[in-house]
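Renewal narrative, Specific Aim 1. Our central claim is that a sequence can be written position by position from structural information alone. The example that follows is taken directly from our test logs and has not been curated for this report. It begins with the structure tokens describing the chain, in the order in which they were read.
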């Protein structure tokens, strides 16, 4: 006797059979309480959030998200739009989603920038824009418009801080290089402060930004007549006077190391157009004396709070060595 099977049941059975044996399914139990009760509990947790219990609050609310994600989103957004937002950045980073990011950034940037787009919130706002790129669209659209928007000092500082700290991913650096030059008077002191921070990575990033934004003039080269040094041919007595105008992280008054000395290359000959790098030079202005007939010099940011001196062989053929006599400017 032929047995007839219902197509729907057969399709369901085949679909279930196609699920990998190792797949895991999360069982969502019945909601522990009503949405109204959940709203009260979430509000109570947000009210009590502080630096000491941040992890506990985040864990408690996270345990409810399977049922009350929308309720949490509504509460985070609504609270950010009030004056009770002071401790909210403590929990927004781990609890926000794309909806929360979009609404918070939009409100802060366009609706209430004087209170909600301020330096204290720069790290949180930047984190939201980085993790949820769609939330940054109004921010970048306005800043890339012409003419540039007129911003108050705190808002401009917050904007610059976000752009400077954003990782070099996507089009963030391209946007920053287009936007920040319009606000040189704001970004310049921010980077100068970063240069003297104990965080060497922050100081190095500041050096790179100052170079990219043209905030420091390049080293200038002029010539002066010097007395020939012992052992040098008379044709080498015309030497350059170079002032390194790199990061002003130190001055001649605060620098405590040697005030003069000699850099001398080691190893084999340097080929024509080849470069030799002297690393780990303190970021102070230097007077450098060397043979300009055969060498061209430039200063550049190095690792941490240092700079490097790069000598390029512009002579004809290889040079056995390069020698640079240096003095701290103003010492």
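The sequence written for that structure reads:
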């Amino acid at each position: 006797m032929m047995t007839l099977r219902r197509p729907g049941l057969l399709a369901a059975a085949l679909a279930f059979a196609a699920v990998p044996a190792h797949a895991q399914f999360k069982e969502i139990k019945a909601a522990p309480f009503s949405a109204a009760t959940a709203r009260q509990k979430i509000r109570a947790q947000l009210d009590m959030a502080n630096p000491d219990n941040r992890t506990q609050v985040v864990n408690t609310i996270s345990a409810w998200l399977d049922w009350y994600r929308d309720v949490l989103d509504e509460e985070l957004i609504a609270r950010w739009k009030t004056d009770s937002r002071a401790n909210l950045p403590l929990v927004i980073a781990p609890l926000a989603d794309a909806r929360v990011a979009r609404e918070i950034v939009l409100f802060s940037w366009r609706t209430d920038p004087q209170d909600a787009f301020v330096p204290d919130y720069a790290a949180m706002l930047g984190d939201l824009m980085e993790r949820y790129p769609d939330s940054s669209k109004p921010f970048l659209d306005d800043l890339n418009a012409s003419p540039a928007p007129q911003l108050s000092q705190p808002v401009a500082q917050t904007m610059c801080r976000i752009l400077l700290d954003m990782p070099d991913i996507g089009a963030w650096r391209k946007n920053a290089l287009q936007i920040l030059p319009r606000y040189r008077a704001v970004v310049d002191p921010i980077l100068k402060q970063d240069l003297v921070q104990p965080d060497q990575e922050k100081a190095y990033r500041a050096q790179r930004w100052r170079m990219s934004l043209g905030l420091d003039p390049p080293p200038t080269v002029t010539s002066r007549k010097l007395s020939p040094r012992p052992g040098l041919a008379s044709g080498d007595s015309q030497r350059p006077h170079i002032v390194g105008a790199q990061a002003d992280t130190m001055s001649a008054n605060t620098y405590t190391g040697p005030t003069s000395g000699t850099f001398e290359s080691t190893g084999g000959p340097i080929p024509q157009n080849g470069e030799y790098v002297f690393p780990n030079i303190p970021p102070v202005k230097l007077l450098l004396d060397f043979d300009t007939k055969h060498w061209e010099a430039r200063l550049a940011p190095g690792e941490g709070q240092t700079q490097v001196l790069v000598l390029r062989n512009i002579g004809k053929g290889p040079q056995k060595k390069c020698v640079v006599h240096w003095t701290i400017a103003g010492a």
